[in-house]
C-alpha cells in the first residue's frame, strides 16, 4: 500500500473508531417532543426511597430495565447523554426538588437551577452535597469531572467551572437521571423536611 493511501486509510479508520466510541455518549434516539418524553417517563417512575441508608441495595439492571424508560436506563446505568433542548427538565421552571430516578435520593433544588443556554438542566450546587460523587472522566480527548449519585451510582452528568454562582460551578445534568417533585407534593412523597426549603 502506498504511503499516501495508507495515511488516508489510517485517518478515516481512526475517525470511524472515534465516532463509534463516543456515539453512544450522545443519545442517538429519534428526536421526540419534551411533552412526549414527560408522558413516557411518568409511566416509568419508581417509588421514592424514604430515609435511604447505606444498606440500601440498588435493583439489578435486569429489574431496572423493566421500571425505567430506555433513555433513563441508558443514561443512568450506561453513562449515555440525552439530547440538548429535547429533554424533560431543561426548561422546567416549577419549584421543587430533583431526586435520583432510581433511588429517590435528593440531588438538586429548583432554587439553584438556572438558564445556562446548554439545553440541559443546570444547577449552581447540589441540594444535598453528600449525595453527589465526583469522578474523573477521560472518555473524550480532554478530562472532565463526572457526577454520580451516591447510593444508586447513577450517571447524572458533569460539573464545570463556568457557573454563575459564588462557587463558579455549573452542574450540567441529564433529565433522564432525575425525577422532579413539585414543592406542594414533597410532604406526600416523603420529603417533608425538604419542603421547609420552600417556606
UniProtKB/TrEMBL annotation:
Molecular function terms, GO-annotated: peptide-methionine (R)-S-oxide reductase activity
EC id: 1.8.4.12
Domain of life: Bacteria
InterPro entries: Met_Sox_Rdtase_MsrB, Met_Sox_Rdtase_MsrB_dom, Mss4-like_sf
Cleaved signal peptide residues: 1-28
Catalytic activity: L-methionyl-[protein] + [thioredoxin]-disulfide + H2O = L-methionyl-(R)-S-oxide-[protein] + [thioredoxin]-dithiol
GO terms, biological process: protein repair; response to oxidative stress
GO CC, one annotated term: cytoplasm
Keywords: Oxidoreductase, Signal
Residues of the MsrB domain: 61-183
Protein name, UniProt field: peptide-methionine (R)-S-oxide reductase
